[in-house]
């Protein structure tokens, strides 16, 4: 999954990154 790749998007399951809608 793209965890650290796309920090601007929602993480796979863990919402540790800021969700940018």
Tags for this model:
0% strand; globular; 21 residues; little secondary structure
Outline the structure in words:
Residues 1-21 are annotated as: Disordered. Residues 8-21 have a biased composition (Basic and acidic residues). The chain is mostly loops. It contains no helices and no strands.
Note the topology:
Blueprint: no helix or strand
Tell me the number of strands: 0
Query: So what's the overall shape?
Result: globular
Major sheet summary line = none
Strand content: under 5%
Helix content: under 10%
Oligomer: single chain
Task: Compute the separation of the termini in Å.
Answer: 19 Å
Question: Which structural class matches the secondary elements?
Answer: little secondary structure
Uncertain segments of ≥5 residues (pLDDT<50)? none
| Overall pLDDT metric | 59
| Helical segment count | 0
Radius of gyration: 7 Å
Outline of this structure?
The chain is mostly loops and 21 residues long. It has no helix or strand.
């Amino acid at each position: 999954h793209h965890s650290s790749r796309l920090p601007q998007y929602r993480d796979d399951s863990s919402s540790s990154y800021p969700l940018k809608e």
